[in-house]
Sequence to fold (126 residues):
Amino acid sequence: MAVAARPRPDSVIHHSDRGVQYAFADYAARLAVHGIQPSMSRVGNPYDNAKAERFMKTLKEEEVDGQAYRGLDDARTRIGEFIEVVYNRQRLHSALDYLAPDAYEASLSQQRQETPDAIHSQENCY
Fold:
């Protein structure tokens, strides 16, 4: 979803929890096709990828837990809508100065246009 929807910076790291779906060779191959570096926490150490772990907790608590999806397509649609609408556009994130990710990304784009060299060091924060 994100690969199709957003321009890709020069380097991207895909942080994930230790879910088995992220360890499959097919998934790793899809990341490689797009030039994306996978990253996963060490066993028993969720602090390696604390932001990814926190995202997964939020997704499970606010969308998945207690839901009765009609099937895989319904789950994909509803989880995708939660991520795009609620998580990216509405939900405020303390790590992003209490902005939603889309608003934070837009502010970075505006800063880049106004002062391209001033935020060069922030580009590796993604």
Notes: The mean pLDDT is 81. The two ends are 16 Å apart (CA to CA).
